[in-house]
Amino acid sequence: LVTFFQPKLLAGKRVVVTAGPTFEALDPIRGITNHSSGKMGFAIARAAHEAGAEVTLVSGPVSLQTPRGVLRVDVKSARDMLAATLAEVPAADIFVATAAVADWRPATSAEQKIKKDGTGAAPTVAFTENPDILATVAKDERAKSGRLFCVGFAAESHDLANHAKAKRERKGIPLLVGNIGPLTFGQDDNQMMLVDANGVQELPRAPKLELARKLVGEIARRLPAQR
Ligand code: CTP
Ligand code: CA
Fold first, then answer.
1. Whether complex ipTM tops 0.95
2. Confidence band of 1 (pLDDT split at 50, 70, 90)
3. Number of the ligand 1 atom closest to the C-alpha atom of 98
4. Domain 14-107+127-222, CATH number (from 3.90.1700.10, 3.40.50.150, 3.40.50.10300, 3.30.1490.100)
5. Which stretches does the entry tag as region Phosphopantothenate--cysteine ligase (predicted)?
């Protein structure tokens, strides 16, 4: 007979998830962002909480409800997201980076609204690279030793499997999830590819919450055994 007490998959674990886009200011009014809806990250936060974890969701600007029981930290820029994440990961067992972090930000952000100068000339914007949150966390001693399990996401326009394999190695993480095109921004379902040291495995198209629950299972079975 089955046992009465089945511990939840992530009972006693702490999980940090980044989600949504970042917003990189040009001036107090304007900025640069992207089409990430945050849905996949929010679904993972919800699924991890359902699995018994204590979950912190570091979210860029999105219009989604916080999953029940999840602690949410709102941020705007990539640098804010990095700071909020670094404050949370030292106590975490799992870090899942779903955020669509802006790779570049305007090199300077004007303190006042940039006005037209009347000549028809357009301003030029110089960019500078943002910190890589996932790569920064993955370099950490706890991540290197396996005590902090890091999961990355990748959206590629072409040659997903090869880009995803290369990205997993470049970031130095045990698991990378590839979004199988077409680009799924804002949609409620998704199709994913899991890339780990053993190779590639596909998760067929399904609602994001269903995929999030499967992913939580895949993460749980890859965690180092409890002593
Ligand atoms: N990521 C991050 N911080 C960044 C850029 C990316 O934490 N500044 C994370 C994303 O949340 C995702 C993973 O890194 O989990 C891969 O993001 P992606 O944009 O696919 O990869 P990049 O390394 O930025 O490479 P590129 O955009 O050139 O493909
Ligand atoms: Ca990128």
1. yes
2. low
3. 11
4. 3.40.50.10300
5. 15-227
